[in-house]
Amino acid sequence: xxxxxxxxxxxxxxxxxxxxxxxxxxxPTVPFFILAAFCFARSSPTxxxxxxxxxxxxxxxxxxRERGAISxxxxxxxxxxxxxxxxxxxxxxxxxxxxxxxxxxxxxGTWIWTRPE
Length: 117
Hints:
- The protein is mainly α and 117 residues long.
- It has 2 domains: 3-67, no CATH class; 72-113.
- 75% of the residues lie in helices and 0% in strands.
- The chain contains 6 helices and no strands.
- It starts with a helix and ends with a helix.
């Protein structure tokens, strides 16, 4: 099947980005691992199982799959990242471009905050 290699590549890229997010402050980690688990479920059940059984990333992946839940700590981190992004865009981008980051922060921040914990 042609889609299987594409899902595998998407999973591998998501793991790389998630791993980079461990050390880069504004790059999210857990969402990339959730995406990797989704992709590996369609391409490599072995790698999916390794992610789900991971002591560090398994619990948030399972919480997302079972309840669409995001931890309170994850919510706070996302909202702080949104606030920093808005602040940077207000300081560096010419008007009216910061409105796009403000709108995105409001829409996605509200969505994240309303997820179960």
